Amino acid sequence: MTPDLPPSAPEPAVPSVGRRPRPWRVLGVAICVALLVASVAGGLLLWHEAGTSRLQARALARYAARLDYALLAGPSAAIRFPAHGPFDQRLGYTELARFSERLQARGFALVEQVRFDDALLAHVERGLFPPYAEKTRAGLDVFDCRGEPLYGFRYPWRGYERFEDVPAIVAQALLFIENRDLLDESRPTLNPAVDWARFARAALGQLGRMVDADLDAPGGSTLATQIEKYRHSPGGITQDAREKLRQMVSASVRAYREGEQTLPLRRRLVLDYLNTVPLSAAPGHGEVNGLGDGLWVWFGADFARVNALLAAPVGEGEERIAQGRALRQVVALMIAHRRPSWYLAGGREELARTTDAYLRLFAEAGLIGAVLRDAALARPLAFRDLVADPAWVPATPGKGTTAVRTRLAGLLDTALYSLDRLDAELGTTLHGGLQQAVGDYLGQLSDPAFARSQGLIGERMLQPATLGAVRYSFTLVERTAGGNRVRVQTDTTDQPLDINEGSKLELGSTAKLRVLATYLELVAELHGRLAALDPPALRRVEVDAQDRLTRWAIDHLASAPDRSLPAMLEAALERRFSASPGEGFFTGGGRHTFGNFNASDNARNPTLREALQASINLPFVRLMRELVRHTMYQVPGSTARLLEDNEDPRRVDYLVRFADREGQLFLRRFWRKYQDSTAEEIRSTLLDGLRPGADRLAAVFRYLEPEAPPHALADFLARRLGEPPAAARLAQLYARNAPEAFDLPDRGYVARVHPLELWLVAFRLQHPEATLAEAVAASADERQQVYRWLFRTRAKGAQDSRIFTLLEVEAFLEIHRRWARLGYPFGHLVPSLATALGSSGDRPAALAELMGIIVNDGQRLPVQRIDTLRFARATPYESAFAIRPVEGDPVMAPEVARALRGALSDVVEGGTARRLAGAFKLADGSELALGGKTGTGDNRIVVRGRAGLALNRTATFVFYLGPRHFGTLTAYVIGPEAASYRFTSGLPVQILKSMGPLLIPHLEPAGAHACLPPPLSEAAPQPVTAG
């Protein structure tokens, strides 16, 4: 019960326990306030950082500064080449590991290469792109032996050199379309890789597309990340979010490579983008990169003219129209980059609409005025007609440079198109100054007045009215310690064919040099086999009556007071052979006669030295016959000796052994001949080795194409002989050579080709993927069949002629092996004595190589055109290679080489090249020792019912000039008009004489014009670092 209180008295206060302040509430409020303050501060900081990138600048600049590399001597284990990226592929960076492997396997040493430091290695192994100053234009540079430029390919062809060269409207248009705040000068440390507002919109857009796949979401790429993408990302595209992140991080690190201030780099980004942006590819041109090339390829617009128009104030009349057209083209290409293969091909109407829309937006934003906008909108885009007006890439390297580029393409296993676009520097052996001087001189020979002044007009020389059709090819090689270096290689044609290396021509009497070399080699071999025997022992050596060479060697050694090899070689050159044309020669399956160039030689009985000096034909035909017969009989138990005795019990055993074992030997030889050849190349090689004739060609065609109809045979014969046979003759050839008409040996006999070669060609055409082992297994019956037929003919005469034809083919296979060892370039010889006069063909470059062997005392040195190769200069991938010096391959006895040099010297002193005698005197008055061999070729096809038709006429001189230099000079006419030319090898001899003043300064032992020494003899350069 409560006590009574007065009415006016207040009620007593009751304590309120629940309202007392508690500590956790105070703390919560404090945290909330702190978080709010922190959020505001953090937001302000992030907003400030997004706008200025100051913290990123500080951190990333420090990080980028640690990413270093250095160029040091020797191979590097601390280097990583890119695996993908369109620009890395085009510049060759992705192929450098493969290039290195191929080059080192082919005689080059890796002399310098970049080493990554640890930080850069870690950066790259995280999958990021290395930061360095990338090249916007690059390509193959070719230098001569003194470091002077010979050839340069720059891709893209057109571009801005400096940011200041870019018209303001071009830069503003690009930034408006792609990256509007990139050049904001108020933000000096801005990270150009990320536009946060744009990135946020793109992120929201991608979220929207998860709901609506058709939603047109904006892109978030800046110019910096776009450049990373099309340069380095696989396929030049962003495949996923991870790839986008890699682009952004790599671009951010690259942006701060030079420090925290990025405005200069951001200007370079604009410049680089304009110079490199991918704009699809065009027929006849290939890929298109950069605004400059894009304008020229797609619109036929001159880059300099477009820039001049857009840099000028808006004009009147035609100039305003041109300015509007130029702006429209530029904006169209900026838009086309988004989908270049679509916009620049099937999407041109859509491109035009989008271009119009942006032109209007430019005007609304104040970038351009209404007048220029209207001028740009007035006319539609007019694309170049790439069929009627193809955008060819200009490239005009000289023949020497073309040969070097072709050689390099083979070394690297890459196409010439790709080769020119590599970031590479090629150091060649060519002497650019001399190459240019010789090329200019040869080019003047089409001028009648100049030709007359050089002594080239006259009988068996040139006629003023026909100078223009004559072409010239010249090669000069210098023998050095490490190889034979080509100093000059040029010709006067404007065709890609290099007649020096890419032709097969009858070069006439130059073949006599090869025959003489083989002859003296055989003499040296006989000396090595017989010289140790005393006269009684020599007389007991059995020699077949047909082997006159061995008989002469025995007689010489049995009676000569000086039995040394040099003396025997000199005696061999003094042997006499009749020059009479009265004898018929059974060769190539038939009887042939030969003539001399000068009828006055017919009654002579010259020595071989004299025959070489005067280039008399018949002594060399008879010498070749002697070599063929010696080759037939030189092996004990040879086929030729065995077949002389019909009753020899070893016949059957021999045939079985020969057909299996020896047949395999020939099959392997033929396999090597056609190895790595296409079907067309296999056919051509076989057919080019045949003497043109309808019967032979038809026999081969019907074997290779047994199901082909008659008209196919007619077309084939027309291609090979110049015209098709008459209908009756065609029917006869078709029926006579039916597949069932001949067995393999008879068909080989008719075609004058080894039956096993014919079989292998057919097998390779039917089974292009077959291996040698499969060919050997498949040919077991044919190997027996090929040689069994020889003994079925009852008529001894017919049997002997067939046997001899086959033996001659086999002998020429052995002679070819010898020639190939001395650089003969083709896979076969025509099995005929006419080979001594050039019927098997040759190449000027191959003759020069033979001369190099002779000059170098029998050592075969490699012919070199490339000394150094440097890839990716001033990049993290830089790698430099140099040719390794090599020892010569002894392919000829030194005594043989010296004997040949002496014989060739006689040709100059008193033979067909005598006009050259005394023409090359050095500055001190001394005369260079000179020698050489002349040859005239009249390359004809025989057309039924009329005389031979000359396809080309050639006159060649293969020479040596002093102890170190040698080469060839060829004059030639190609085409039917060649039949009217009568010049001989005196023409190239006179030209070489006239070129003496050009050449002599370069022949001095240590002249001022000398090339630099081989690179591996020099000190290695000092290391170069990235920064």
UniProtKB/TrEMBL annotation:
It comes from the Bacteria. GO terms for cellular component: outer membrane-bounded periplasmic space. Keywords: Carboxypeptidase, Glycosyltransferase, Hydrolase, Membrane, Multifunctional enzyme, Protease, Transferase, Transmembrane, Transmembrane helix. Its EC number is 2.4.99.28. Residues 155-307 form the Glycosyl transferase family domain. It is an enzyme of class 2 (transferase). One of its GO terms (biological process) is peptidoglycan biosynthetic process. This is peptidoglycan glycosyltransferase. It comes from Thauera aminoaromatica.
